[in-house]
Amino acid sequence: MNMEIKPGNINKIEEGVDNNAENIDFQIEAETKKLESSAIEMQSEIENLGGEEGIMKSIKEMDENKREEIMNKIDSCLNKILDNKTFQTILQFSYAAGVAGLGASIVARIANIDNDAIDFLSRSSFVAFVVPLATKMISLINLMVQESQYLKNGATEGKNNLE
Amino acid sequence: MDNENVLRELMEKVKNGTATKEERLVLLKTMNASMDALKILIGAVKDEKNV
After folding, report:
1. ipTM field
2. A73: burial class by Cβ within 10 Å (0-12, 13-18, 19+)?
């Protein structure tokens, strides 16, 4: 994270993003399609399950073993987010683009997730961990549905400040 | 700032056209990873309700 950031060495510091322009366009298109497909599917599932209220009710009523199983799987997903250098990459690109304050926001985000992870590890209360997480995710899914079009359009219309 | 607000802020960059392609890709990957976690949660709720 302390590596000096220069536009030319992005490839060297991020394993998950290929800086080849053509390949980036391809990856953006693929990730966007995946996200749009998932968002439509999940939006429908959420509605079928009684919306946010219905989902929260079911989570609270689950037996403890089931909760434990879900927690392990969700933890695996959170680790995937934290381990793939995504957040470091955002920090690096934000710095390169000169976006004031964004880096600090991402650090805050990491801190939030770490707090969730600490709650998870303590296993003191499933509801204390999973319910807030689920609430965030359901808010997130609504946000994704609303905004996914911008991400798709951005692939062709946005500026690449590193070029 | 909570996670959702940070994501909103990043998306604002995309909407404003100030995000780089790399930032958009990173954001998409992050959102897809979050979506995977949501799918697990929804799947579990469906099992619970025998839907």
Report:
1. 0.82
2. middle
Q: List pLDDT tens digits, range B8-22.
A: 666 666 666 677 777
Closest among B43, B51, B45 to A62, alpha carbons compared: B45
* Cβ contacts of B22 on chain A, cutoff 8 Å: 10, 14, 17, 19, 24, 89, 93, 160, 162
| Residue in A10, A70, A94 nearest the CB of B40 | A70
Chain segment A133-153, per-residue pLDDT in tens: 555 555 655 555 555 555 555
Q: Are A105 and B1 in contact (CB under 8 A)?
A: yes
What distance in Å separates the CA atoms of residue A156 and residue A153, rounded to the nearest whole number? Answer: 6
Look at the block and give the residue holding tokens 């609270």.
A60
The tokens describing A137, both together, are 């995710």
Measured in angstroms, the CA of B34 and the nearest CA of chain A are apart by: 7
- In contact, B8 and A144? CB cutoff 8 Å: no
Residue B1 DSSP label: -
DSSP-based three-state secondary structure for A157 = helix
The distance in angstroms from the start CA to the end CA of chain B is 36
What does pTM read for this prediction? 0.55
Place of tokens 């000169």: A98
Within 8 A of B7 by CB-CB distance, chain A residues are 140, 143
The answer to whether the CB of B30 falls within 8 A of the CB of A137 is no
